[in-house]
Write a structure and sequence with these properties.
Blueprint lengths: L16 E5 L5 E6 L3 E6 L4 E7 L26 E2 L24 E6 L6 E8 L2 H6 L4 E9 L3 E9 L5 E3 L1 E3 L2 E3 L7 E3 L5 E4 L5 E4 L11 E5 L6 E5 L4 E8 L3 E6 L1 H7 L11 E8 L5 E3 L4 E12 L2
Antiparallel strand pairs: 1-2, 2-3, 3-4, 5-11, 6-7, 7-8, 8-9, 9-22, 10-21, 11-20, 12-20, 13-17, 14-15, 14-16, 16-19, 17-18, 18-22, 19-20
The protein binds 6-O-phosphono-beta-D-glucopyranose (BG6).
Length: about 300
């Protein structure tokens, strides 16, 4: 169940962070400081908006998105756990796991200086999650809103046995026109091409240009990536830690039409560059152990 906005009043930070009830039944946290504004849904611990002061929104949100319990939100930053994409050997399981369709609790909401706000959201294994995945865990998503957006997904194994999982901060970035942007930082990196029978390929030396449906899992890469967007005169930098894979996705024309919660004409306005551990970088965690994956998203002018 989604905790109601009214039940969270005591946690609010007057003037900078408050909870709101949406018509669809979801609860959201709105943050507004001199550094940035943001919207975070407890459903999926989902950052739906991040806008540094004086700048345009950094994240893409689909106008066709659902905002309903049990359905993922299309855009922003879905949290993917404990499997990425379809679950291997389980065609009946929901794509990208269950973290994005569960209601998370608010563990804490703080600001040390009135400018930077940190929300910590928590999801604990339950009979519902154990029906899908039989392990005990605690997930914490630490979201820091300031001049940059920082996210840290923490996975703690509370089972008596080790478990393995995949994860992603499935970030949708807003761009002027994906065909006129380029992605740097993945030059020379091996990747799985999900649009070409999962073939393993190696990226060339030039920045990536999107010219068709693109769905790639770049392997063994910890580097900072950047999206250069001359149309918006900005560069979005994605620095990361605890992540060995980076996913680049744009659905292009046909796949956009096939998705019910994504507008047919919205694909040029977005690109996903996802901080992930997926496929060969799935994480195995011993009982009691903790794994953390971080992403820091910052915007700079493109000179
Ligand atoms: C990407 C995957 O991360 O997410 C794609 O690599 C997938 O294969 C896309 O199509 C969107 O997934 P979903 O489940 O949100 O429609």
């Amino acid at each position: 169940m989604n905790p109601s906005a009214a039940s969270l009043r005591d946690l609010e930070l007057p003037g900078i962070a408050s909870f709101h009830q949406d018509p669809g039944g979801l609860t959201e946290l709105r943050v507004s400081t001199t550094a940035a504004s943001a919207r975070i849904f407890l459903h999926g611990a989902h950052v739906a908006e991040f806008q540094p002061a004086g700048q345009r929104p950094v994240l893409f949100m689909s106008a066709a998105s659902h905002f309903a319990p049990n359905k993922p939100i299309r855009g922003g930053v879905p949290v993917i756990f404990p499997w990425f994409g379809p679950r291997s050997g389980h065609p009946e399981s929901p794509a990208h796991g269950f973290a994005r369709t569960n209601a998370w609790e608010v563990e804490s909401l703080q600001s040390s200086d009135g400018t930077n706000v940190e929300a910590v959201l928590k999801l604990t294994s339950s009979p519902a999650t154990k029906a899908l995945w039989p392990h005990d865990f605690i997930l914490r998503h630490r979201i820091r809103i300031g001049a940059s957006l920082e996210m840290e997904l923490e996975v703690e194994n509370r089972s008596a046995e080790p478990f393995s999982f995949e994860e992603a901060l499935h970030t949708y970035f807003s761009v002027s026109d994906v065909r006129k942007t380029s992605v740097t930082g993945l030059e020379g990196t091996r990747y799985v091409d999900k649009t070409d029978g999962m073939k393993i390929k190696t990226e060339g030396d030039a920045p990536i240009r999107i010219t068709a449906e693109t769905d790639r899992v770049y392997l063994q890469t910890q580097t900072t990536t950047a999206i250069d967007d001359p149309g918006l005169a900005r560069r979005i930098e994605i620095a990361k830690a605890g992540s060995d894979a980076t996913v680049v996705w744009n659905p292009w024309v046909a796949k956009a039409k096939a998705m019910a919660d994504f507008g047919d004409e919205e694909w040029p306005a977005m690109i996903c560059v996802e901080t992930a551990n997926a496929g060969e970088s799935a994480v195995t965690l011993a009982p009691g152990a903790v794994h953390r994956m971080r992403a820091r998203i910052a915007v700079t002018p493109l000179g």
